[in-house]
Amino acid sequence: MGKSLSSPGQRNLIMYTITILPGHDRNGDPEPFEALHLRPGDTIAIVGPTGSGKSAFINDIEVFAQGDTVTGRQILVDGAPPPERFVRDPSCKPVALITQTTKCLADLTVQEFLSMHLRARKIEEGDRIAETINLANQFTGEPIRSGTRISSLSGGQTRSLLIADAVVISHAPIILLDEIENAGIFRDRVITCLKESGTTVIFVTHDPLVSLLSDRRIVMGNGSVRAVLEPDGAEASILRQVTEMDNYLSSLRERLRSGEILSEQVAAI
Amino acid sequence: MKLIIVAGPPSAGKTAVIRQILRNLPKRSAAYLKIDVIYATEDEEIAAEFGIPAKKLISGDLCPDHAGIMVTADALGWAEEEGAEYLIIESAGLCLRCTPYTTQSLGIAVISAISGTHSPYKMAPMIALADIAVVTRVDLVSQAEKEVFREGIRDVAPDVEIIETNAIVGTGMRYLMQMIEGLEEIVEESAITLRGNPPLGVCTVCIGKKEIGWNHHFGVIRRLDDVENLFRGE
């Protein structure tokens, strides 16, 4: 990891504990948990089949649901309903959601977009724009330049920029990432960076590596939480193997991209 | 009677926002008027879904905001006869120059979060004269995009209330409903006026002359190379 990754982590984040109170599944039956607490620095993976309610779960957190969403869940911050400014004033909002959408429709250059975001947050520009772009460029293999138009960035570049923005500019203590694996970005670098910065991260994911790198897994089905799993080191051996496999696949991907024919013989699994 | 006027460009989600308002208001407490230029079916859909009195006005050759101004007094009378507590008027959302909001009402501008960073600047009067800007489709954009879009709204209307919503699901609507709860009754119907200034009136194109070229027209017109010269009399 590059040195610049450590700089976002050195800023002090204001920490919050988020509590999720149960709602109901699609049949209206109550969810089988009493309260879920997300503590500062937690990494959590939300898993489950397509349509099982994963995105709805993080959306509840994003909007600080108060029983007013389809799921009926309630979100507390430090044990109480959040103050209105957390929801209404983005500069006070401790949560940043990076959506599944890999396109950003802002009709601005990267530089203008970040500068306007800094202005919205009443932050001095300083070197934040360069810092954000540098961090984003560690998450993606296709370099982002400050003069590029936001709308012409690739899916991976857009995601990388929005994650770097959430860390450097929004400075959000809680980041929600919806299917980070859909875009071409270095997942392990993103996860390491967010962990180092003390951010609470919730991944909606179908990716084994992202799931295994998280401290806890929330399993969804039929619109409700089915189970909360805490492997607590039990999966360490599998994680090592999956990390190796992932590195192997990444190296194959790079070789294929560069136009190689992969002619070596390998043992059947 | 309480008057709610909803404006916003086509496909911004005006009707979706109104559906959420109706879902949260006491049952059968509202009447609904949709104003459009060529085509509208929202009145039938709303009537069927909520069982409330609903009407539409197709303005045809007339400017839809102009049509709205003309019929608003009649519509208030109609809603009163129907026993409604609220009249909700949905504008056609075509004109970015005029605004349909009146005094003694709640003016709501509906804008889509995916309509582009410059869109708030282009519809500045529609936002600046509203009480509330409801930003729809926020579920499709990430936090930074939301904040940048919001900054555009703040640039044109520093004091407007901003409510972000996924209007299909209804997130964020609790704040809109709080403002509707605080809405006051119309005190004196005859004193209701438009909040904004309507555009300068008539030129010969407005009254139906179709010939092309400068020499056929007079009134309030602009030349391409001579923008200061606004008026040409005969």
TrEMBL record, chain A:
ABC transporter domain mapped to chain residues: 15-247
Pfam family for this entry, one: ABC_tran
Domain of life per record: Archaea
UniProtKB keywords: ATP-binding, Nucleotide-binding, Transport
Gene Ontology terms for molecular function: ATP binding; ATP hydrolysis activity
InterPro entries membership: AAA+_ATPase, ABC_transporter-like_ATP-bd, P-loop_NTPase
Record flagged with keyword Nucleotide-binding: yes
Family stated for the protein in its record: Belongs to the ABC transporter superfamily.
Protein's name in the database: ABC transporter ATP-binding protein
Organism of derivation: Methanocalculus chunghsingensis
UniProtKB/TrEMBL annotation, chain B:
Native species: Methanocalculus chunghsingensis
Example GO biological process: protein maturation
GO MF terms held by the record: GTPase activity; nickel cation binding; zinc ion binding
Sequence ranges assigned to domain CobW/HypB/UreG nucleotide-binding in this UniProt record: 4-163
Cross-referenced InterPro entries: CobW/HypB/UreG_nucleotide-bd, Hyd_mat_HypB, P-loop_NTPase
Domain of life: Archaea
Protein name as catalogued: Cobalamin biosynthesis protein
